[in-house]
Structures are given as structure tokens and as C-alpha cells.
Design goal:
single chain, about 475 residues, about 70% helix, membrane, transmembrane helix, transmembrane, Purine-cytosine permease-like protein
Length: about 475
Amino acid sequence: MTQYTIEEDIEQIAGGEYERERVPDSKLKGWKSFLGMYAGEHAAGTEFVIGPLFLTTGVSAFDLIIGLLLGNLMAVLSWRFLTAEIGTKFRYTLYFHLEKICGKKLVTVYNLANGVLFCFLAGAMITVSATAVGIPFNMEMPKLTDTLPNGITWITIVLVLGAVISIIAAKGYNTVAKAANWMSPIIVLAFIVCGIVALSQLEVHSFSDFWNLWGEGSEPFPGQIKYTFWHVFLWSWFANAAMHIGMSDLSVFRFAKNPSIGWTTAGGIYIGHYIAWIAAALLYAVYLKSPEAQAFLANGQAPTVAPGPLAYNAIGIFGILAVILAGWTTANPTIYRAGLAFQAIIPKTSTFWVTILAGAIATIAGLFPAFAMKLLDFVALYGFILAPIGAIIVFDHFFARRAGITSFYAEKTNISFNYAVLWAWLFSFGIFYFISLKFNVFLSFVTLPTWICCGFLYIAFSRYYQKKHTV
């Protein structure tokens, strides 16, 4: 789910180099660099949680398998025809591109939101690793419905893990990034092996046996909502909404030689968000047949969704290591990126201390299992908040001239706060978030309408505000 590099360290790929200028042609990269990066990026610690969580929603075989297939295809198309198209045309970081449209002060607000959300996501990664570290200590695993820490052992493990991860992210990120490059194939292998072992434990000998594991679906677990095809399709499309239609990956694709390199995202998506999610779901299907899980269900409770024990039951110590590595190698760059976002707000503070600040927030978030146990909901909210900002960039690029407005308006008029952007985001977010809450509409259902609404409102408000100034 989070981003880290395979061929380049994060300073180059994510914005530390050429952050306020166009990337020169001599620094452009071919498809191999991006294929490796995305393959590693999307086989992360969160995959161990997301797969099982789908089963808690009572999803059917068709809805899960075909919904993920088509939803992930839409995500790839979004990267290819929106993010990669704009990224290779201008070759700016997301932040510099936004600054040209929004102004410096408004981009600061975006950086704060982005940094805080990254911290919460990193907290979920720490939670994932903690479920594996806790196995030798006989730690009580968090339940699906848990919100608060469940004991001193859990608190101690999360605090120690968070401290170590934060310090390494602050002091030795390059070493961790290089180590992650070597670890990512191991993590992918662990997912595949877990899936194969789970199929054996479930006595699956044919495709029909595999299909019948979910069949027509079931009632959702206590506290969960029922997922249909559209829930799976839209959730998987917008799981990375901040990165593709939200344009965060402009910072990555500005190094691509041509827009067709956007197709390399399929390598990561279909390894991590298809194979890995289904493999993790199979692990949970095995666990659901256990006496412990059946006891939970008999008492009207949702069985635990803890990645560490699930992987350990399938492949032993290798499973524990895979879960720790998956959480560790994705929490580190997530914390680092959150630190970069905070540093843009307080530029005089050193990278070390803003990263420690980000790590502290992530560690506190990791204490609360809800961020991981409610990951489907959190990821939907994450995309819903940040994706509309990408609509500003897309509409500014594709429709500004036709609508009679000036693109890159803040840069050309030297303003620091473009109110057209602020009001477009606030109105679109407010309207559709209210609809989601008032009528109990699944948040991923309104992400695309919010994105489109934000784009059109940006055009409308820009026409109004730009009449007051001449460029």
C-alpha cells in the first residue's frame, strides 16, 4: 500500500531531487525500474489484513474474484491515462505542481493532511508487525472489534517496534530502502507459499473447490457490513486513490521516459492486490475452521484477524518473519514520507526530528488496533479525503483552456492561496461526506462523484475568481 523504491532511493523518486524544477531527460528511467518498484510496493504488510477482512464482510466468490480483477484494472488505467500522462508531460513533484495551482499556503494545508494520514497508515503497519512479534510471548491478539490496546504486552511491543522503526527511518533510511529491495521478493514468495499451503489445508483440488470456498457468500461478521460486487470493485479501484486519481504518484512518474510506463503498475497491483489479498483470505479461511474461531462465532463475536498467527499457522517461523518484514519495510518509508510532508510545513526543522515526530504519531496510532482492524474503512476514507485534490490537477490540465481559465494560476499571479481550490474541495467533500453519513452510503461509492464534483467546482470557482484579476 505504501511507496518505496527499488532502483532509486526515496529522495530521488519522491521529491528530494529536482523538487522545484522539471526532471532533466538524462535522469529518466525505463520500465524495469518502475516494474520493480511497484511489484515491491504493493506486497506490503497491510495485504495480510485486507484479504481476511474481505471474508468478514461475507463476500461471495464471484464478487471477490471478479470484483478484485476489474477494480484493480480500473486502478491501473487510472495510473496509466491520468497520473503517468500528466507526470511525464510536466515532470514536477505533486507538491510543486499543486503549488503552481494552489499557492504555497494552501499546499501547506494539504501537506498537513497528507502527513497525518501517512502516520495513521504507518501505525497500521506497526500493528501488523506487532501481531507477529507477540507470538513468542503468548500475547493476546487484538480482536476485529477492538479499538483500545488489550494489555501491557501489546503496548510494550508496539512502543518498542515503533521506536526502533522511527529511529531507523530518521537515521538510516537509505539502508532500510536497500534492504527492502531484497526483502520484497521474499515477502511476495511468502504470500504465494501461504496461499498454496492454505489451499492444501482446505483440501482444494480443483477450481470448483476453490470457487466453493466462498460460494454465494454468507452473512457478514458482527460489526461488519455486507460486501457486494460493487463494494469490492470500487474499494479495490480506490484503495490507492490518493496515488492515482489523487496524483500523488506524479512524484514517481516524472522520472518515467514515456506515459506507457504507467502500465507497469499492473505488475504490483496484480501481485499485491490480487494474488496477495486472495492468499491472505485463504489463510483466514483456514483459521475460520479452527475450534477457536468457531467458538468466537458461536458466541456471536467476530474471530480475530491477526496476520502473525495466520501466517505462522501456515508456514511457521517463515510466516512470522514475512509478516514482520512486510510491516517493517512499509512502515519505514511511510514514516519517512510523513516526515517530508511535515518538513514542508516547518522547513527549518531537521529531517531527523520531523521523522521522529512522524514516527511518534504513527506509534501512538499503532497502539490502537482499530486502524488495522478497520483498514477497509480507513483506506476508503484516506482516498476519499485526498483524491479530490488530484481532480484539481486533472481538470486544470485537460479543461482549463476550454473553460476559459488560466492554468497554473497561483504561479502566474503570484498568489499564495487559491480560494477556488479550497472551496471546490470543501464543497465536494462536505456534500458527499454528508450523503455517506446521512444515508449510510459506503464511502468508496461516493469517491468518484466527489472527485468529479471537485473538478467541475474548481472550474466554476476559477472562472469567478479569475475575473477579478488579469494575468
